[in-house]
């Protein structure tokens, strides 16, 4: 999310690669599957972190892999946790049981302005780090690698036994969660959830590759461009790929209408996903960008050739369907953290740090 993640001398945004890439498996020399051994550190503005929260919820891993939420405000020392001891209440349990992080009550609390950057509203702005009392995410990075020189990004999956970072790349973390590693700790209903079914693997991989480069990362390439020429090129490309996505979903929706009848909305919506007719990793990786689009990327990253709600009707229906009918998505979406996080943490993009009140509502009803 940081505007300083990296850029090259052509004023283009380049995302740094993630240095910690271990997996958890019975064959791994150190990181064996276990209940309560691993902990996920996230920040709710971050779309990459949200992928991991969604997958954790869908796979029933909330009781197996705990989670801490950094304060939504990213400063020049990186993400920070709320003060030690603050979060040691029963409410933390409620946070985890929610299958992600819930702040359903917050989504209706407006306006979001007038909150100081360093406000500490317990279990509203984030949680503490309950194991080591770390104040900063950077503490984990230095503990794992004392000479670490990169950025301190979320999400981070940590091993509490060795106090090291197992992995800090969201696409790996969701594959770890989606593997059979934790099957023995979850019920059959979760074991059956396969976000990358073998029969759809090639299609999902192809979809993910352009969605990642042109849409997930595309909004950042437009928003963090350091000159007009780069911005214009990137924003144009982004909307070309949103058009491609709209066409793909249009075909999907029309085929479902032909099969089940135009009026059979429930049957259609039950099957209306990006690839195949069940929820897959393709939806998990697409959603965090689309749900942030109208509320932040449109104005903050100047991705304003169109909105999802008024100009991309099939993407909009897909988004509303996922948000309103799938708890793992809705309960890991915190519009307040999202809006505040982007608009208050990127002074080059928004120097005064005023958080726009609109659009209203954050997401329309289905
Ligand atoms: N490749 C990483 C990217 C994660 C990432 O860029 N996270 C941003 C938040 S959206 C971050 O933590 N930035 C902190 C910083 O750059 O200081 C992943 O997908 O896990």
TrEMBL record:
<dbReference type="InterPro" id="IPR036282">
    <property type="entry name" value="Glutathione-S-Trfase_C_sf"/>
</dbReference>
<dbReference type="GO" id="GO:0004364">
    <property type="term" value="F:glutathione transferase activity"/>
</dbReference>
<dbReference type="InterPro" id="IPR047047">
    <property type="entry name" value="GST_Omega-like_C"/>
</dbReference>
<feature type="site" description="Lowers pKa of active site Cys">
    <location>
        <position position="342"/>
    </location>
</feature>
<dbReference type="GO" id="GO:0005737">
    <property type="term" value="C:cytoplasm"/>
</dbReference>
<feature type="site" description="Lowers pKa of active site Cys">
    <location>
        <position position="297"/>
    </location>
</feature>
<dbReference type="InterPro" id="IPR016639">
    <property type="entry name" value="GST_Omega/GSH"/>
</dbReference>
<feature type="binding site">
    <location>
        <position position="79"/>
    </location>
    <ligand>
        <name>glutathione</name>
    </ligand>
</feature>
<feature type="binding site">
    <location>
        <begin position="151"/>
        <end position="154"/>
    </location>
    <ligand>
        <name>glutathione</name>
    </ligand>
</feature>
<keyword id="KW-0808">Transferase</keyword>
<dbReference type="InterPro" id="IPR036249">
    <property type="entry name" value="Thioredoxin-like_sf"/>
</dbReference>
<feature type="domain" description="GST C-terminal">
    <location>
        <begin position="197"/>
        <end position="349"/>
    </location>
</feature>
<feature type="active site" description="Proton donor/acceptor">
    <location>
        <position position="220"/>
    </location>
</feature>
<protein>
    <submittedName>
        <fullName>Omega-class glutathione transferase</fullName>
    </submittedName>
</protein>
<dbReference type="Pfam" id="PF13410">
    <property type="entry name" value="GST_C_2"/>
</dbReference>
<dbReference type="InterPro" id="IPR010987">
    <property type="entry name" value="Glutathione-S-Trfase_C-like"/>
</dbReference>
<dbReference type="InterPro" id="IPR004045">
    <property type="entry name" value="Glutathione_S-Trfase_N"/>
</dbReference>
<feature type="binding site">
    <location>
        <begin position="169"/>
        <end position="170"/>
    </location>
    <ligand>
        <name>glutathione</name>
    </ligand>
</feature>
<feature type="active site" description="Nucleophile">
    <location>
        <position position="46"/>
    </location>
</feature>
<dbReference type="Pfam" id="PF13409">
    <property type="entry name" value="GST_N_2"/>
</dbReference>
């Amino acid at each position: 999310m940081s505007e300083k993640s990296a850029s090259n001398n052509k004023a283009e945004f380049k995302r740094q690669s993630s240095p910690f890439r271990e997996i958890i498996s019975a064959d791994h020399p150190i990181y064996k599957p276990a209940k309560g051994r691993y902990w996920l550190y996230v920040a709710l503005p971050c779309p990459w972190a949200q992928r991991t929260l969604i997958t954790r919820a869908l796979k029933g891993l909330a009781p197996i892999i705990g989670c801490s939420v950094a304060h939504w405000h990213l400063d020049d020392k990186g993400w920070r946790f709320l003060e030690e001891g603050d979060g040691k209440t029963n409410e933390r349990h409620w946070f985890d049981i929610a299958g992600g992080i819930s702040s359903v009550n917050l989504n209706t609390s407006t306006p979001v302005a007038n909150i100081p950057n360093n406000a500490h509203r317990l279990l509203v702005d984030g949680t503490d780090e309950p194991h080591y009392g770390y104040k900063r995410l950077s503490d984990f990075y230095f503990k794992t690698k004392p000479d670490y020189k990169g950025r301190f990004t979320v999400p981070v999956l940590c091993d509490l036994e060795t106090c090291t970072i197992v992995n800090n790349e969201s696409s790996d973390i969701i594959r770890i969660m989606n593997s059979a590693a934790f099957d023995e700790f979850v019920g059959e209903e979760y074991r059956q959830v396969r976000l990358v079914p073998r029969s759809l693997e090639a299609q999902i991989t192809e979809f993910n590759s352009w969605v990642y480069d042109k849409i997930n990362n595309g909004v950042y390439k437009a928003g963090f461009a350091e000159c007009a020429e780069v911005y214009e090129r990137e924003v144009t490309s982004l909307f070309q790929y949103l058009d491609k996505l709209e066409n793909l979903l249009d075909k999907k929706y029309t085929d479902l209408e032909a099969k089940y009848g135009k009026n059979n909305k429930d049957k259609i919506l039950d099957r209306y996903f990006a690839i195949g007719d069940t929820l897959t990793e393709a939806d998990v990786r697409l959603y965090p960008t689309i749900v942030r689009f109208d509320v932040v990327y449109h104005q903050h990253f100047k991705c304003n050739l169109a909105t999802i709600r008024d100009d991309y009707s099939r993407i909009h229906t897909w988004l509303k369907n996922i948000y309103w009918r799938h708890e793992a998505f809705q309960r890991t979406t915190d519009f307040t953290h999202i809006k505040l996080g982007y608009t208050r943490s990127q002074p080059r993009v928004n120097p005064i740090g005023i958080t726009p009140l609109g659009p209203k509502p954050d997401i329309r009803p289905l």
